[in-house]
Write a structure and sequence with these properties.
With about 525 residues, the chain is an alpha+beta fold. Among the domains are: about 1-30 and about 230-375, Multidrug efflux transporter AcrB transmembrane fold (Up-down Bundle), CATH 1.20.1640; about 450-523, no CATH class. Helix content is about 60%, strand content about 5%.
């Protein structure tokens, strides 16, 4: 170890220069990092359920639907219908949106004297504006189950406008544009935003806000602890410098390797601030304890003593993070493990090579004598009393910790998993409010998909779909169900053949002809 220390001291300026160049390069790469808050993209492709979920989202637009909830005292008013139409037209014209479904353009199936008519619930060129027309619209909506809880709330105080993103569109860009457009309309009604594009954008904004807010707070707290521990400029700056360089290298490598910041990996800087500074604390403390007045001898002696303990400490920590790679289901958690372990390794490397080089290059003389004259608040008022307590009452300490362990084990067994998105946000947050409203008015925004493969013109297949819907509706957690079988049944009813699936394939094909070109088929 002495030869290693002497090598560092001999080439200290080269080491400092290399670290500086690498830090500048990797720091520049951080500017290319992107934030990915889409949990769906983090699902593993080798899991059949996850692959099926992604396939359904791609083929039917199920995972890429945004929602705008318009809430007022009564949606069946002339100005409210006009505003819904205005929102619908605005969304239609926006880049990245393939189709829009709302009260003013949703399909309606009705029977006529000449057979059957598949049209729009509302004539967008002749919106209802009299009370008679508005009352008629209300009655037509509440007569059909397909509208209640899916496009209009049961109490008639809210309506849902849904939009589907074009495949490959940037969800965050579209979502931000949607919010900006809606705000520019300055509507009197209350608008809430839900669905996957809006949700991932909210989370991305929160990730950015957390990084800006939490890193300085953690920096100040750790700096304060370092100051009361070392009471020296060197004791504060060098541990923080180690952590900052480790964070820079870790995030820079993340950018170079094509990874993105997620709602998990945004915690990496905070963790590395704590973990990364710890190794430098050990090295500094050991150098301070050396009796040699010659700085080179002090550094050599300290490194010889502390090298193996620091390596082992970093190794066990890094292995702990690496375990996420093998035990985690989500890709974002695996990425968190990779780059936190990488940052831990960088912190160890910087501590053992760069920090001694810095001390050797810029420390004029040892501060060991000066250090002894100072009192450490942390040591004198906390660590020393705790040490005395441990030696004075070892049995009581052992019993106390044993009880705490038992309580902790019991607590671990009581932990419950939850994926309720409301719990991720504080009260009053727009996302939380939107989730509450969509739960109260429309039963929630969390879909359950059942994929049927077969002949969609077969009476047996369509009846099996209806049977599945009936089973699902028995669950108190499912409000409504929708399928192609529901539409065929409504078409059959409008033809006067009864509220059921036709008993022949030919009849189903004839009914399906009325749906050709309708946007609802894609969904």
């Amino acid at each position: 170890m002495k030869s290693f220390a002497q090598f560092i001291l001999k080439f200290r300026w080269l080491i400092i220069s290399l670290v500086f160049i690498i830090t500048i390069f990797l720091g520049y790469q951080i500017g290319n990092l992107k934030i990915n808050s889409d949990i769906i993209s983090s699902l593993p492709d080798d899991d059949p359920d996850a692959a099926l979920f992604k396939q359904i989202g791609k083929e039917f637009g199920g995972n890429n639907i945004g929602m705008i909830i318009l809430e007022t005292d009564n949606i069946f008013k002339k100005e409210v219908i006009e505003h819904v139409h205005q929102i619908t037209d605005t969304l239609r014209m926006m880049d990245g949106i393939s189709n829009v479904t709302s009260l003013t353009n949703i399909m309606e199936i009705k029977g006529t004297d000449f057979g059957i008519e598949v049209g729009k619930l509302v004539d967008e060129y002749d919106l209802p504006d009299t009370q008679i027309e508005l009352d008629s619209l209300r009655n037509r909506i509440f007569e059909k189950e397909m509208y209640i809880g899916s496009i209009v709330s049961e109490d008639g105080t809210a309506t849902l406008i849904m939009f589907t993103l074009i495949d490959g569109a940037d969800a965050q860009t579209v979502a931000r544009n949607v919010r900006a457009k809606m705000e520019s309309l300055q509507l009197q009604e209350k608008l809430y935003y839900a669905g996957s594009p809006m949700l991932v954008t909210y989370i991305a904004d929160l990730i950015s806000a957390d990084l800006v807010k939490l890193i300085p707070i953690a920096f100040i707290v750790i700096a304060f602890v370092l100051f009361i521990s070392f009471r020296t400029f060197r004791g504060v700056i060098l541990p923080l410098l180690t952590a900052i360089i480790a964070i820079t290298w870790s995030l820079g490598m993340m950018s170079i390797l094509g990874f993105e910041v997620t709602m998990i990996s945004n915690n990496i800087p905070i963790i590395l601030l704590a973990v990364g500074s710890a190794y430098t604390i050990h090295v500094l403390n050991r150098i301070e304890l050396q009796k040699e007045t010659d700085r080179k001898k002090a550094i050599t002696s300290a490194l010889s003593f502390i090298f193996i303990p620091v390596i082992l400490s970093a190794l066990t920590t890094a292995l702990g993070f690496i375990s996420f790679i093998f035990g985690a289901y989500l890709e974002m958690i695996k990425a968190f493990g990779i780059f936190t372990a990488m940052g831990t390794f960088f912190a160890c490397l910087i501590t053992l090579i760069f920090i001694p080089a810095i001390i050797s290059a810029f420390t004029i003389k040892s501060t060991s004598k000066k250090r002894k004259s100072k009192k450490s608040i942390l040591s004198d008022y906390f660590l020393t009393p705790v040490t005395k307590l441990l030696f004075k009452h070892p049995k009581n300490i052992f019993i106390t910790w044993s009880l705490l362990m038992l309580v902790s084990i019991f607590g671990i067994l009581q932990i419950k998993r939850s994926v309720n998105i409301q719990d991720y946000f504080r009260e009053g947050n727009p996302t939380r409010e939107a989730e509450i409203i969509i739960m109260e008015k429309f039963g929630g925004a969390k879909p359950v998909f059942v994929l049927f493969k077969g002949d969609m013109h077969s009476p047996e297949v369509l009846n099996k779909i209806l049977e599945t819907e009936a089973y699902m509706q028995q669950s108190p957690d499912i409000l409504t169900t929708q399928s192609i079988a529901d539409i065929i049944r409504q078409l059959n009813k409008a033809m006067g053949e009864g509220d059921q699936i036709p008993d022949s394939r030919d009849k189903i094909e004839q009914l399906s002809f009325f749906l050709d070109g309708n946007e609802i088929l894609q969904q």
